[in-house]
Structure formats: C-alpha cells, structure tokens
TrEMBL record:
Its EC number is 7.6.2.1. The keyword Translocase applies. ATP binds at D431, K432, T433, E520, F563, K587, R616, T697, G698, D699, R779, K785, N808, D809. Belongs to the cation transport ATPase (P-type) (TC 3.A.3) family. Type IV subfamily. Residues 178-321 form the P-type ATPase A domain. Keywords: ATP-binding, Lipid transport, Magnesium, Membrane, Metal-binding, Nucleotide-binding, Translocase, Transmembrane, Transmembrane helix, Transport. It is found in: Endosome membrane; Membrane. The keyword Amino-acid biosynthesis does not apply. It is a multi-pass membrane protein. This is Phospholipid-transporting ATPase. GO terms for molecular function: ATP binding; ATP hydrolysis activity; ATPase-coupled intramembrane lipid transporter activity; magnesium ion binding.
C-alpha cells in the first residue's frame, strides 16, 4: 500500500478500550451525548429497571409479518484468513434492503393497510354492494370512482416512496470496492462482499460492511473515520490497525498470513467489540493471540476520513451494527385523527339509524332488510371518503408553511401527520444541556484548596505558569511562593494532557480542536490561554508549547482510559521525555473521585458552591508511578485485554487496584454552559400558555436548580421543593404527602429518589407530580427520561412534547406524542429521530403558539365542514325518499354526486386551511390563548352535534322548499335543489372564514363559474331553457336565503353577546 506522505489530521483520540456496552444507538439505555462527558453533573444514575407499559396501549395488537419469522439466534464466529466460498456463504449476504415491498407483496400489502382504515373499508363494502342487483343504485362508477381515486393517491405515494428506497438501495449495493485477492485487486460491488474478504478502502470512501482494520497507510497504523451517519456524532474517531499486521512489509503479505479472527456475536452496541486475532508467528512457529477491541473496527456506513486502509470483513448485511440499529418506531397517530375516527363510527350509527327509520316508517314489509341496505348505500355520503384526502392535503400545507417560515429557519417537518398535535400540547419535557443551554463551555473557576481563581484573577495563573516554565523558579523568593507556582503548573499541565482532544491545523495555519465533549475543548482552550497550548497529538505522543519560553514539551502516551457513563471518569498514563517520569492523570465526577483521591476537607463543599453557581464541576488528580509499578500494571492489563469473558470488568479491576489509589488531588474546575438565546422568554411564554414543564437532566441537583431559576423555568414567586437521597418507601410517601398541599411549587428530585418513588409508590407520585407546574428531574438516565414520558402519557392521557439535542434524548423523543429535536453541536441524531427538527429552543414558541394553533383550528374546521357536506346531502335524500313513499331512489346520480364532493365544493372547503382566527402578533403576545386549544373545543361532540343539527335544518329546508315552490316544475327538482345546495355550501364556507385570503376568494369565484359552465355541459340534469328564467333565479335565491341566512343571524348574535375570548384582544 502506498504511504500517504501528508500528515493525518488527528481529530480525536479514540479510546483504546471498549465502552462497557454503555453506548447504544437510539434505543440504548445510556446513549452518550452532552450529558455523558467527563464531568460530575452529567453522569447519569443507573437506569430505571421497572419498565411500565403505557395504559393506553394495553389492549393494542400490532400485527407484523416479521412476527411469523422465528427469532434469529446469533453466535460468535471465528473466520479464517483465505476462507473458502462454502464458509463465506454461511453468513448473511451484504445487501442493503430498505424496501417495504416487492413486486409480489406491494399491491396486497398496501391494500391491506388501507382497508384497515374504517373509512376505506366502509366504502369498499358500499362499492361492492353495487354488484348485487337488488342493492344497485345509480352508476357503479359513482361509488368506485372516489374510492379508487383515494386509493390511487395513497398507492402512488407508497409506490414513489418505495421506488426511492429501491433506488437508494441499488445505489448502495452497486458501489464498487477493491478486494485484495491472490490474483491482485478486484473491483466488486458492495453486495458481493462476503465475510472473510480483504477490502481496500480509500479516503472519503464509505465502509461497506463491518470490518477489522488490518493495515493503514500511516506508519503508526492509525486512521480516522467519520461516524455521523451511524451515531449522529460529528467528531472523527481514531481507529488502529492490528499491530502485527501493520508491521508487515507490504499489503500483499496479508495473503500469506496463517490465522483467524474471532468476533463476538452480532449485537447493536456500536461502542463495544470483543475479538482476538490468532496467528502463527513465522519466526518462532508459535501461536500468538492479539486482543481486538472497538478501536480496531470500522463499522458499516462510517466513512474513512484519512489515508487508506485494508479491512477484514467480519459482519455483513443484517448482522452489521448499522442494520441492527435501524429501528422503525411505531407510527404516531395524532389526537385529531383519533377523534375523527370516533366521529366516523358515530356517523355510521347515524346512517344505520336513518336507514332503519326510513324502512320502519314505511312498515317492515317483505324483504325489508334489502331496503335497509339500499338506504345505507343512499346515505353513504354521510361518511365522507374525501375527509381523509382533505386532511392529508391540509397536513402537507401546514408542513410547508412551517418549513417556509423565515422566523424559524432550518425547521424540518419529518412526520407530516402531526402538525395538529402542536396545538394540543399540555406537557413539555425538555433536556437541559444543549437544549436550554448552548453547550458552549467556558472555564470560569479553578479551585485548588487554599487558592481559588475566577475570571478576574486568571492573569495570576498566567504569571505563575510563566515563572514555572521559565528559568526564574530558582530565584523565586519564599517557599510558599514556590509551592504555589509548582501547584499551578501541576494542575494546568494535567488539564493540558488528560483529555481526548486533538488539534487540527487548518489551511490558514490556525489550530482548532476536535473532541466529542465541548467541556474538554473549553478546558484545552483555557490552558492555551494560560500559556500551555496543545499543538500536536497522535496515538503515541502529545506535544505542548509553552508560550513564555516557546519551548515544546513532548510526552509519550502509554495508556489511555476513556470516559464511560459507568466509570464517570477518564485517565491517561504519560511519560515525560525530559524527566522520564511516569505520571497517571485522572479527572472525573466528584462522586467517584472523592473516594479515589487522598483525604481532604474542602472538595465536597466547593463542589456544592460551584454547582449552586450553575457551573459543571470536574475533579483533577495525579499519581506518580515507578517503572516497576508501571510494568506490573502493563502485564496484568495485557492479560485482561485478551480475555474473552468479562474483559471490561477485568480491565477496570486492574485499573482500580493499581492506579486508582491515593491519588494526589490537584484541584477542581468549574465550567459554565451558557443559556440558549431566548430561553427565558420562551419558557415564560410556555408557562403562560398553560404547559406544565419538566426538565430532565443528568446534572446534579444544585446545578439543575440554578439553571431552572436563571432560565425563568421557576417563576419569581414560586417555591422550590427539593427531594434527594431518599432511602425507603416510607420517606418517599412522606415527601409525596408534603407535596399534596403545594400545588404551585417547583419539584426538584434526583434520579435515585425518582427511581424509588416510581418503584414503591408510582401512582401516588405521578398523581402529585403531574399537577405541579414545574418538575426538575436530576441525575436522569436516558431510560428514565423515556419511562417518565410514557408514565405521563399513560396517566394523564394528555399530549406530551419532548425536546432534546443529544443521542441520549432519542428514546424520550420517540416515546412522546410529539418529538422535537434540536440540531446540536454533537450532531443530528436527536434531530433525525424527531418528528420536528428545529435549530434553537426559542423556535418552539412560534411552532406551538402560531403553527400549532393554526394547524389544529384549521383541521378541526375543515373536517367538520366536510362531514357537514356529506350530512346535508343525505338529509335531502332522506326527505326526498320520505315524500316518495320511502322508496330508496337516488336523488342525485352520476356526475352530480361525483362533482358535489370534488369540483363543486372541494376548492372553497379546502381553502379553509388558509384561515386564521387571530393574527400572528396576537397569538404570540397572548400565549394564554393557547389554553383554549388544549380543551379540544374546536372539534368535540358538542360541535359535531351542532353541525348535525345545522345539516338537518339546511337539508330539510332546501328539499322541502324546492318541492313547495316548484310544484309546477317538479321534473326540474334535481337542478333546483342541487343549485340551492351548491350556493348554500359556498355561503357556509364564507360564513366560517375569519380572515379572508385571496385564494379563498379565487376558490369561491372559480367554483361558481365551473358550476355555471357545467350546466351547459350536462344537459341530462340541467334544462337551460328553464334555468335561464327569472322564476328559477328568484326562487333558488329564496331557498338559499332560508337555508343559510338564519345561521348568519345566529353568528352575529353570538359574536355580539358571547364572543370568543380572543375577540376581546382586538
């Protein structure tokens, strides 16, 4: 392999050990993100073990074809080098399949999904009934036409979506890669790659399967990969080649290797891998075993970011981490859709009742049940098949309006079926770091026991550091002065070395820093400002530059111990090349570091003080090691590394036994995370809108409380009730009893107490907590966040919105009725998993108060009007049949019945999606208006039965007056009543509009013109010689006035004497 002469841009030093299974994609119990960096506040407690099933999902049954397949049993595998084809075929093929359907299953599956919907199934049965001669009424196409149109739209959408998936799959499966074989390099498509293949990767090439890294173009055996498409994190990850294979002279030498790779069974955890490379040493003939960890792997869908590499394929297709982590969350259904489904069932009962009444009034003679079915068919328009189409089109309009809003740029609607839910939210559950705060860190305080430094005294540290690294140390007068200087040097040097930050040199020569945790970047930037800058780093060494003297200090990296949510600390062993001294540095959360460092009497107190100031604390310590102690450690650690069982526990045991004893406490850092722009105003508006707000964070109580107060989450006059360190169920019940009388306080509770409450007295706790306006849950793990979300949903039956920015918020976001993800500094994982993606927390105000309001109010009005449109024509049919001796004869047939729900009324009715009851300024200035929306009054049984009565009155009035006024021209009853019906519907649309839009006017005018033009085009139904008479015109005008004018009068009286609450603001 040709060597890459360019220096590799070291972006981040990836841990050399696995992550104890603690980090998983989306569904993990402890997803690493902003709340799992290196600091105390962000370390989450053990997750909630007691998982509660939401009450509202108790009786649900979801059928899946996948459930018929037996569960696949995964086993560890040992793959030999140069495996034969028979061995390779035992494993899954490396094909990417994201399609939902194939040619055979497409039509049956889509139709099955469609006819599960009550609307579609009902109309299918009505249409099929027309093949029964005794039930046939009118033309068959008038029944199949609307149904086929709806199905065609849905099937076309599904087909297009699946076609896009097929094209993406085909593109991914056909990407060419180089495979190293005895005959040289072969170009093969991704789908032909098998387990055991040697694949050559170039810079910026996607990794096609899960591999073990054998060799790289860099002499050190390192390379970097980008994982943003796998875990959402934007930082680069370091990967290391197998040491013995990196030392091979040439790439072709890999073909002569005699050995095999053992890999543990396929699983989801992308941060964990246990494997070994067993081979025969050519010099000694002895078998050698080398440990393999996650740092030796390249997972599928990552991208090689530097140099070139050769990988050995260990998992393909369905066995890869990327595919195993591809979860399909349950489809979310909006509350409005559920309400409309309930109304549809009531409409069916109305239809059935009217049919039975019609037959009963005529006496149940003969084949009366046939007549019941015929009336059911006649009245089928009561259940409007166009309702689903109108609502889906409306949702698309709302989604486009949200995405095109210039005041909330970058907003993306990922689930277009939920915009109405934004207007019904009653509980807002928010993450803290990166959501309420900027995730933009700055080191504000440094405490060293007897000395404390703040922003205004940092220049003293610069002076001490310059003295320590200069030649002045000997000449410094006074032992105390010398002691201060050396202590300052120790802690600054520790902070400059103990991290996973990598400097990157840009094209213009400027150095920037890469790390997964912004805390670490803030600390390294601070050491640079103090005069000790990180200038270079690779897997073997770290270089620091002293600003005062310009000299470069070089340290060899011997071992590094990464941060995990279990250990809550990180460490590094370095060797100072100048003094050959071996030092172990460690930093982490105070709760774990307190038992590791030497006894002191100030750490707990100062950690509490900094937390109360809203600072994130980090304890720093060191330990000098002799060569003998280090060799003992290295030997025992090596033995633990090659263990196949309990490897992580064994390694941690060695570290704790040899390294983590009697560490010298160097100091304590305090890092500030600034609030997001507009957070205070947004939270205040949300509170005024009636939302109950929960902040779920991994922070300690003091920090979370401070942020809650500074962000105005807790209002000025609200008291704070703190619950912490509960040990028994009795204590938990006492706290709950104490909260019963405090209805307007902020509850702050830690993770341990929360878990105890949920396990011992869940019903009592959730009953009290859901009544409080503000709850802050500290030390919250990702699993607890999701469990709390489900509990609130199940207990209150109210709409819950969850918002977060990190990977550890994904489970919470997916569990909520509405999930909102913020595009954060750590990547897009939360954003991609959410229903709505925004760029900052303050955008939530307009999303809920304006777009949520409009979406809900418009859809409620649209759905009721579409139902009214079906009811009124059915009432007219009932009156017509009653007059003609209760005969089930159709009043309107053919193009009239088809055109009624389409060209004659669809545009004006659909234009209601542009209506708005209040202006944007009013909605945002008075968030209290939002409270009315959560009561669901815009679409309720009351409004439904109101529209039902209106439909009965208008349908009866139009039909009866048409017969009375035109008794001499009875043969023209169809054209008379239909014209009055169309005009009535247009006037009713105008009556319902609050704010006119130019497209509404266009829709009304164009519809009238289309109707007038159709009179000439449909001579079967319209006799123009009669229609053009004055008698026809004035009588139709009278009928229309009688049917619609009373409603205008009622609306005028109601607005004058009982106006809506928002009209008082104009």
């Amino acid at each position: 392999m040709p060597r890459d002469s360019r220096p590799i841009a070291l972006q981040r030093l990836m841990p050399f050990t696995n992550r104890s299974g603690s980090r998983k994609i989306r569904t993990s119990d402890s997803i690493h993100s902003d709340e799992d960096p290196l600091i105390d506040e962000e370390a989450a407690e053990p997750s909630l073990r007691r998982r509660q099933r939401p009450k509202d999902s108790k009786n649900r049954c979801h059928f899946s074809w996948q459930s018929l397949k037996p569960a696949k049993i995964y086993k560890p595998r040992t793959v030999p080098f140069h495996a034969d084809d028979k061995t390779k075929r035992r494993f899954s093929p490396n094909t990417v399949i994201n399609q939902k359907y194939n040619i055979i299953t497409f039509i049956p599956t889509v139709l099955l999904e469609q006819f599960v919907v009550f609307f579609n199934l009902y109309f299918l049965l009505v249409a099929l009934s027309q093949f029964v001669p005794a039930l046939k009424i009118g033309y068959i196409f008038t029944y199949f036409g609307p149904l086929c149109f709806v199905l065609l739209v849905t099937i076309s959408k599904e087909a297009m979506d699946d076609l896009h998936r097929y094209k993406r799959d085909k593109e991914a499966n056909s990407q060419l890669y180089q495979r190293l074989t005895a005959g040289g390099l072969q170009h093969v498509p991704s789908s032909k790659i098998r387990v055991g293949d040697l694949v050559v990767l170039r810079k910026d090439q996607r990794v096609p399967a899960d591999m073990v890294l054998l060799r790289t173009s860099d002499d050190t055996g390192s390379c970097f990969i980008r994982t943003d498409q796998l875990d959402g994190e934007t930082d680069w990850k370091l990967r290391l080649a197998v040491p013995s294979l990196q030392r091979q002279g040439h790439d072709d030498d890999l073909l002569q290797v005699r050995g095999s790779i053992y890999a543990d069974k396929p699983h989801k955890d992308i941060h964990s891998f246990v494997g070994t490379f067993t081979h025969i040493n050519e010099d000694t003939g002895m078998e050698q075993v080398e440990p393999l960890g996650v740092e030796n792997t390249m997972w599928m869908n990552t991208v090689l970011a530097s140099g070139s590499a050769i990988g050995f394929v260990i998992y393909t297709g369905k066995d890869t981490r990327a595919v195993m982590n591809t979860n399909h969350p349950e489809t979310k259904v909006g509350l409005l859709d559920l309400e409309i489904n309930r109304l549809a069932k009531i409409l069916f009962l109305v239809t059935l009742g009217m049919s039975v009444v019609m037959v009963g009034l005529n006496g149940f003679h003969g084949l009366w049940y046939i007549y019941v079915f015929r009336f059911l068919i006649l009245f089928s328009s009561i259940i409007p098949i166009s309702l689903r189409v109108n609502l889906d089109m409306g949702k698309s309009v709302y989604a486009r309006q949200i995405e095109k809003d210039d005041e909330i740029p970058g907003t993306i609607v990922r689930t277009s079926t939920l915009p109405e839910e934004l207007g019904r939210i009653e509980y807002l559950l928010s993450d803290k770091t990166g959501t309420l705060t900027q995730n933009d860190m700055e080191l504000k305080k440094l405490h060293m026991g007897t000395m404390s430094y703040g922003l205004d005294t940092m220049d003293e540290i610069q002076t001490h550091l310059a003295s320590a690294f200069g030649q002045e140390l000997v000449g410094i007068s006074g032992k105390g002065r010398r002691n201060i200087v050396s202590r300052v040097r120790d802690i600054v040097q520790a902070l400059a070395l103990c991290h996973n930050v990598t400097p990157v040199v840009n094209i213009d020569g400027e150095i920037t820093y890469q790390a997964s945790s912004p805390d670490e970047v803030a600390i390294v930037k601070w050491t640079e400002k103090m005069g000790l800058a990180l200038v270079a780093r690779d897997i073997n060494k770290i270089e620091l530059r002293v600003a005062a003297s310009g000299e470069t200090l070089t340290f060899d990296v011997l071992n590094i111990f990464p941060f995990t949510s279990e250990t809550k600390r990180m460490g590094i062993i370095i060797r100072d090349r100048q003094t050959q001294e071996i030092i172990f540095y460690e930093k982490g959360a105070d709760v774990v570091m307190a038992r590791i460092v030497q006894y002191n009497d100030w750490l707990d107190e100062e950690c509490g003080n900094m937390a109360r100031e809203g600072l994130r604390t980090l304890v720093v310590a060191k330990k000098r090691m002799s060569e003998e102690v280090y060799e003992e450690f290295r030997t025992r650690y090596r033995e633990a590394e090659i263990a196949l069982h309990e490897r992580n526990a064994l390694k941690q045991s060695v570290v704790e036994e040899i390294l983590e004893t009697e560490l010298e406490l160097l100091g304590l850092t305090g890092v500030e995370d600034k609030l997001q722009e507009g957070v205070k105003n947004t939270l205040e508006q949300m509170r005024n809108a009636g939302l109950r707000i929960w902040m779920l964070t991994g922070d300690k109580i003091e920090t979370a409380t401070c942020i809650a107060v500074s962000s105005k989450l807790v209002s000025r006059n609200q008291s704070i009730h703190q619950v912490a360190k509960l040990k028994s169920a009795i204590e938990a019940m006492d706290e709950i009893d104490a909260l019963q009388s405090k209805t307007d306080c902020c509850l702050v509770i830690d993770g341990e107490s929360l878990q105890l409450c949920l396990e011992s007295c869940q019903e009592e706790f959730i009953e009290v907590a859901t009544r409080l306006p503000v709850v802050v849950c500290c030390r919250c793990s990702p699993t607890q966040k999701a469990d709390i979300t489900r509990l609130i949903k199940g207990y209150t039956k109210k709409r819950v919105l969850c918002i977060g920015d990190g990977g550890n918020d994904v489970s919470m976001i997916q569990a909520a009725h509405v999930g909102v993800g913020i595009v954060g500094k750590e990547g897009r994982q939360a954003s991609l998993a959410a229903d709505f993606s925004i760029t900052q927390f303050s955008h939530l105000t307009k999303l809920l108060l304006w777009h949520g309001r409009n979406s809900y109010k418009r859809s409620a009005k649209l759905s009721q009007f579409v139902i009214h449109r079906g009811l009124i024509i059915s009432v007219m049919q009932a009156v017509f049949s009653a007059i003609f001796y209760f005969a089930p004869i159709a009043l309107y047939q053919g193009m009239l019945i088809v055109g009624y729900a389409t060209v004659y009324t669809m545009a004006p009715v659909f234009s209601l999606v542009l209506d708005q009851d209040v202006s944007e300024d009013i909605a945002l200035i008075y968030p209290e208006l939002y409270k009315d929306l959560t009561k669901g009054r815009s679409l309720s049984y009351r409004t439904f039965f109101t529209w039902l009565l209106i439909s009965v009155y208008q349908g009866g009035a139009i039909m009866v007056l048409s017969i009375l006024l035109f008794e001499d021209e009875f043969i023209h009853i169809v054209s008379i009543s239909f014209t009055a019906l169309i005009l009535n519907e247009l006037l009713m649309v105008a009556l319902e509009i609050n704010t006119w839009h130019r497209l509404m006017i266009v829709a009304e005018v164009v519809t009238v013109l289309i109707y007038v033009a159709s009179m000439w085009l449909l001579p079967t139904y319209f006799d123009m010689s009669f229609i053009l008479t004055t008698r026809f015109v004035w009588k139709v005008a009278v009928i229309t006035a009688v049917s619609s004018l009373p409603l205008y009068i009622v609306k005028f009286i109601k607005r004058r004497y009982a106006p809506p609450s928002y009209t008082k603001l104009f």
